[in-house]
Design goal:
By secondary structure, the protein is an alpha/beta fold. The protein folds into two domains: 279 residues, Adenylosuccinate Synthetase, Chain A, domain 3 (Alpha-Beta Complex); 99 residues, Orthogonal Bundle (Adenylosuccinate Synthetase, subunit A, domain 2), CATH 1.10.300. 32% of the residues lie in helices and 22% in strands. The chain contains 14 helices and 19 strands. The strands form four sheets. It has a ten-stranded mixed β-sheet with strand order 9-7-5-2-10-1-11-14-18-19, with helices on both faces. Strand 15 and strand 16 form a beta hairpin. Helix 3 packs across helix 4. The longest helix is centred in the middle third of the chain and has 18 residues. It is globular and about 65 Å long. Bound molecules: guanosine-5'-diphosphate (GDP), 6-O-phosphoryl inosine monophosphate and magnesium ion. The site of 6-O-phosphoryl inosine monophosphate has 24 residues, from helix 4.
């Protein structure tokens, strides 16, 4: 059985907390795409964990956590994340952590290229996380990338590959005044072979692990549908395919074994970085959402842009991901507003009314439906106990998307989850 967790907006919908919930009866949890551009928060028994590369399951040693083939791994960041969690007494051994030997490696040049490319874009910058994600996927598709198997393989081969990738990527680096010399190859080689030795015990081929019959697998999506390279709001997207089919590719599992696809959404919308955002509230409403929802980036600490719930996006995401259920987070946060707006259609180019996300989202004007808010979720543990206004809000989401809202977040802690 495979359950896939995907974001339905622009990231940070609370995938980490939903994954923490779903892993309770899982054998394996796999991070499938992206890298340390992700920041997944898990709050469990009063402890807060902010995870960037490790799956949310890492806090449970009985679940096998896998960093899948589709992930781009910065070994500096991963080694640090493992060390920090171990210092918090989280058990991390080759029995509960595997890193795919096919996953690509982020090198310092990728981080540098990310900065160079953003600077060169001028007023067309994307607002990336500057973690080297895009340039690493670029090297991957150029077929010059270094994989985890290289990092832990023969030293002479690793050195040769570092030399080759630096040579192949040199044009862009040199355009920003960076000249490549042999001593740089040596420096990277020394640091990265040491990191390779530290991570070696976790690096394996995931195929023999995943082919076992009867495994209960959870795919932990990162980023989100509208940051997808093909289906997101291009060019303001990430460089991988975070949608459910991309998650299957990244994990190396068959599409037809997915039994549940959980689309994670917030009761409002947020976005980090540049790009169209029709329901954005660049005013006191947006400021209030940000403060009430603590909407500051888990990875970069950037204030997140905030606005009303855009159900057109969620509807689109439900289709492309094949969502079988929705997980709605921050019902507590939105309930603090006396009046809530929800976008139910767009007026496109000042004329047509549409209910899908077009290629030029910036030409869409949201059409809102107003809901009564003002509810509290304090002490509520079941759907039946929810305020009637909150029930109406949830039932409307279900009618509009034709997907049941199965999980409801009423606080950041795992225990603040209502399951229907
Ligand atoms: P992810 O990247 O999708 O895993 O989401 P992030 O962890 O980046 O951002 C979600 C934020 O919302 C985190 O700070 C969570 O602790 C918090 N959060 C998630 N669900 C809820 C909820 O239902 N209520 C409240 N108040 N906070 C939540
Ligand atoms: P999680 O998994 C929110 C955004 C960046 C930027 C764009 C491209 O925590 O939901 P990149 O560094 O990937 O090249 O940046 O994508 N972005 C995210 N926004 N949550 C994320 O991950 C994100 N990962 C990337 O802000 O706009
Ligand atoms: Mg996040």
């Amino acid at each position: 059985m495979i359950r896939t967790i995907v974001g339905t907006q622009w990231g940070d919908e609370g995938k980490g907390r939903v994954c923490h919930f779903a892993m309770q009866n899982a054998d394996v949890v796999i991070r499938c795409t992206g890298g340390n551009n992700a920041g997944h928060t898990v709050v469990s028994e009063g402890e807060t964990y902010k995870l960037h590369l490790l799956p949310a399951s890492i806090i449970n040693p009985n679940v096998l956590s896998i960093i899948g083939t589709g992930v781009v791994v910065d070994p500096r960041v991963l080694a640090q994340e493992i060390k920090e969690l171990k210092a918090r007494r989280i058990k991390i051994t080759p029995n509960n952590l595997v890193i795919s030997n096919r996953a690509h490696v982020i090198l310092p040049i990728h981080v540098e290229l990310d900065k160079i490319q953003e600077a060169q874009r001028g007023d067309k910058k994307i607002g990336t996380t500057l973690r080297g994600i895009g340039p690493c996927y670029q090297s991957k598709s150029e077929r010059v990338g270094i994989r985890m198997c290289d990092l832990v393989g023969k030293p002479e081969t690793l050195k040769e590959k570092i030399h080759f990738i630096l040579m192949m990527e040199s044009a862009d680096l040199m355009s920003a005044g960076h000249t490549i010399c042999e001593s740089e190859v040596d420096e990277i080689f020394e640091e990265y072979s040491e990191l390779g030795q530290y991570l070696a015990e976790f690096v394996k081929d995931t195929k023999p692990i995943l082919r076992k019959e009867g495994l209960n697998i959870v795919l932990e999506g990162a980023q989100s549908t509208f940051l997808d390279l093909d289906w997101g709001t291009y060019p303001d997207v990430t460089s991988s395919n975070p949608i459910a089919s991309g998650a299957c590719t990244g994990a190396g599992v068959p599409l037809n074994k997915q039994s549940e696809v959980i689309g994670v959404m917030k009761a409002y919308t947020s976005r980090v970085g540049e790009g169209a955002f029709p329901t954005e509230q660049n005013n006191e409403v947006g400021d209030r959402i940000r403060e009430l929802g603590h909407e500051y980036g888990t990875t970069t600490n950037r204030p997140r842009r905030c606005g009303w719930l855009d159900l057109v996006m969620v509807l689109d995401a439900c289709y492309i991901n094949g969502c079988t259920s929705l997980a709605l987070n921050h019902l507590d946060t939105i309930g603090k507003f006396e009046e809530i707006q929800v976008c139910v259609a767009y007026q496109y180019n000042g004329k047509e009314i549409i209910n899908y996300v077009p290629v030029d989202l910036e030409n869409c004007e949201p059409i809102y439906k107003t809901f009564k808010g003002g509810w509290s979720t304090e002490g509520v543990t079941s759907f039946d106990e929810l305020d009637e206004r909150a029930k109406k809000f949830i039932e409307f989401i279900e009618t509009y998307t034709e997907v049941p809202v199965k999980y409801i977040g009423v606080g950041p802690d795992a225990k603040d989850t209502i399951v229907r």
